[in-house]
Amino acid sequence: MSLPDRGTIQPTARLLLGVALIGTGACVEAEDLEASEADAIDFRVAADPLLPTLSTQTGPGPAYHGGVVTTTEPQAAAVGQAILAAGGNAVDAAVAVQFALNVYEPQSSGLGGGGFMLIHRRDAPPEDTIVIDFRDTAVDAATRTMFASSVSTDVKSTSGYAFGTPGTVKAMLYAKERYGTTMSLSDVMAPAINAAKNGFNISSRLANDTGSSRLRLETSANSLNKGYYAEARGVFRPNGNSLPTGFKLTQPRLAATLEAIAARGANAFYSCADPSGIALAIVETQTATRSNNSGGRGRMTCNDLANYRLRVFDPDDAQPEVKHAPLVGTYHGYTIVTAPPPSSGVFLLQMLDMLEALETRLGFSFGTGNFEFGETGTLHIMQELMRSAFADRGRWLGDPDFVTIPTGGLLAASYIQSRSSNIQLNSRRSSVSAGTPPTSPAPQVVEDPVKPGKPGKGKTTSEHEGKDTTHFTIIDDEGTVVSVTSTISDTWGTGLMARNCGFMLNNQMLNFNDTPVGTTANPAPNDVQPRKRPRTTITPTMVFLGDELIAAYGSPGGTGILNAILQVTLNLIDHNLSLKSSVDRPRISLDSGSSSADTEIEAGFPSSVRTSLQNMGYGFDNVTSIGAVQAIVTYPDTDALPEDPRQYGAADSRRIGGVRGLDER
Q1: Residue 56, Cβ neighbours under 10 Å: how many?
Q2: Where are the beta strands (DSSP E) in 301-379?
Q3: Ranges assigned E (strand) in 123-241
Q4: Fewer CB within a 10 Å sphere, N or C end of the chain?
Q5: What is the pLDDT of residues 334-391, one digit of tens each?
Q6: pTM of full prediction above 0.85
Q7: Average of pLDDT values for 78-85?
Q8: Residue 504 contacts by C-beta under 8 Å, 6 or more apart in sequence?
Q9: Has 469 been annotated as catalytic?
Q10: How far is CA 570 from the centre of its chain?
């Protein structure tokens, strides 16, 4: 069976999902499941809304009224929909989706990774959005120079020491216990367990990724690689061949791992004393390294796993962790909420603030004339904003538990004016360096990890952020919204699968500076330190009209994430594009202030615009995709439709994507 590209679930998948829920005692009858399937429609034939501009507006029909799930994988979207149909809330559905993605999309995220989760409860003000930072952390034995060698980035990123202590399992279990309903963890995890145990028909994307070179490493066992790289090959490349689209894949070892977690919670994953042996397998597997990287053995111990701690902001806590509170800004009458450091959300807000300052100083209106979508002025201004943001990001962003991040200074009106003062309408700046915001910490080492590349060849950096991440956004019938970006970094992470456990180990530690910028006494914000979290461009984002949440979205895509989120925000607010058009329109991405850095560009922009920009000094690198945004829009309750908001979703066509909803009318 070949899986369709968007929004439709095959009958076998429906049956599997029904068995998964009913067979474990979930409160859903067969006829209820059938009703939920009837309510779910392929979003390509549903209404495609604009962003509401007034709280009294009524959204177009048809729309969903009982919740929406949008993910990078259609079968995972169906799992989330079924959890909502069975009485779960958006958090229950998000947890189910994350565990299911380890089954359906194991190359992008899973138990061996980390990320960020935003949760917004209806009627809470924007600033009370809950943040769960489950970013992977450096181990206790990590050192600032551990990656400073002549070994290639590819080899480093596929060696055991690239694996950071993973947070996904702890985050999902914490979110379920604290913010989910009374639906049991076993019920929430049942769809993932059943899909892993009984099998499913793989998508074209997973089939294509089974041909990845990262599954063909170290084919001859030796004392360094220990033969451990063969574990993933045995699952995804049986007999040495890629899997075809529609292949029925079973993952019994992953199913056993998920069953252990469902039965015994976080201890099953994080305790080396647990009878499942999962933690012991993690520690042993990461001791493998590439044959030409003898120093690349992982250094994780059982204590690293046992001591992993989430960073959580919840305003209801007795002592909220304010360093991990969401960042809140405004843009053209809307309130923007995004993730705090080490996420790059502060630079999304910075770019939006700079754009407003430029409109005032230079007398233009973004979204009109030469600043409509795809015009020369639009792409020029966006590139200059990106250059400024990434220059500042390279110097100032890190783990707020280890370094003072001057978020207030980076967004201060005086600094915004200063950073935008040398941007002109018709010229490209030769290079852009980091600034010094007010209220910044005492002078320290200057960190700018960007190394000039050769003209026409882009640039290289001393940090590596993989692009194979996942994102999903969910809203339930009560208006609770969950937005999660989750990752193992590169496709298949390190290429190492936890022995006999069925999940891949991340390679997040390469997000740190490869070569340290600071000193032992004065480390730079993104230098490696024990228990530190590397910076990331992960940027889940929410948009509010007053205190009403009206949109939420996020994206995978490495350093392109931040720029993808910027462009979707501008498409919705300034270019007045519909939700699906905002997500699907072509994008650009520039992640360096260097004079020689090229801009990644997708197909779809007029050649005349590219020529005009090249005449200004911009260079371009053609790419097939930048990010893959998963988004929802909801219209506020009105007097005419109290307690009955209209909900919509869009899955980015850059991946197969899936949108599923309830109560469509």
Answers
A1: 11
A2: 311-313, 327-331, 334-338
A3: 130-134, 200-201
A4: C
A5: 999 999 999 999 999 999 999 999 999 999 999 999 999 999 999 999 999 999 999 9
A6: yes
A7: 98
A8: 106, 107, 110, 112, 113, 232, 488, 492, 493, 494, 495, 496, 497, 498
A9: yes
A10: 19
Range with lowest mean pLDDT among 162-176, 464-478, 480-494, 598-612: 464-478
Asked whether residue 16 carries a pLDDT value surpassing 90, the answer given is: no
The amino acid that residue 661 corresponds to is G
Confidence of residue 468 (pLDDT cuts 50, 70, 90): confident
Both tokens assigned to 171: 């985050």
650: which strand partners? 631
Residue 571 — very low, low, confident or very high, per pLDDT cuts 50/70/90? very high
Of 211, 271, 274, nearest to 242 by C-alpha is 211
Identify the pLDDT of residue 441.
63
Q: Cβ-count burial of 317 within 10 angstroms (0-12 exposed, 13-18 middle, 19+ buried)?
A: exposed
By the 10 Å C-beta count (0-12 exposed, 13-18 middle, 19+ buried), 222 is classed as: exposed
Query: Which residue spans within 604-651 are E strands per DSSP?
Result: 620-622, 630-634, 647-651
Which one-letter amino acid corresponds to residue 522? Answer: N
**158, 210, 376, 469: the active-site residue:** 469
Return d(Cα 428, Cα 421) in angstroms, integer.
Answer: 13
Number of other CB atoms surrounding residue 459 within 10 Å: 18
| Opening angle at CA 660, ends 658 and 661, nearest 5 | 160
Residue 416 host element (H or E): helix 413-420
Query: Nearest Cα to 27, choosing from 244, 242, 187, 198?
Result: 187
Question: CB atoms < 10 A from the CB of 31, how many?
Answer: 8
Tokens linked to 139: 């181990």
Residue 556: asked if its preceding bond is cis (omega within 30°), the reply is no
Cβ atoms < 10 Å from Cβ of 150: 4
Q: Of 562, 555, 563, 554, nearest to 535 (Cα)?
A: 562
Give the span between the Cα atoms of 625 and 658, in whole angstroms: 18
Contact 495, 237 (CB under 8 A): no
Q: Which two tokens stand for residue 635?
A: 């219209």
**Which pLDDT tens digit goes with each residue over 117-163?**
999 999 999 999 999 999 999 999 999 999 999 999 999 999 999 99
SS3 content of the chain, % helix, strand, coil (to 5): 35, 15, 50
> What is the rounded distance in angstroms from the CA atom of residue 641 to the CA atom of residue 658?
28
- CA angle at residue 154 from 150 to 157, to 5 degrees? 95
Other beta carbons within 10 Å of 127: 14
- What rounded mean pLDDT belongs to the chain? 90
Q: Is the dihedral of CA 151, 447, 460, 72 positive or negative?
A: positive
Backbone angles phi, psi at 395, to 5 degrees: -95, -40
Mean pLDDT of 187-199: 98
Q: Is the dihedral angle over the CA atoms 518, 521, 522, 527 positive or is it negative? A: positive
C-alpha distances in Å from residue 440, one per residue of 344, 410, 494: 17, 8, 36
CA distance 564 to 589: 7
Residue 413 CA to residue 417 CA, distance in Å, equals 6
Q: How confident is the model at residue 26 (pLDDT cuts 50, 70, 90)?
A: very low
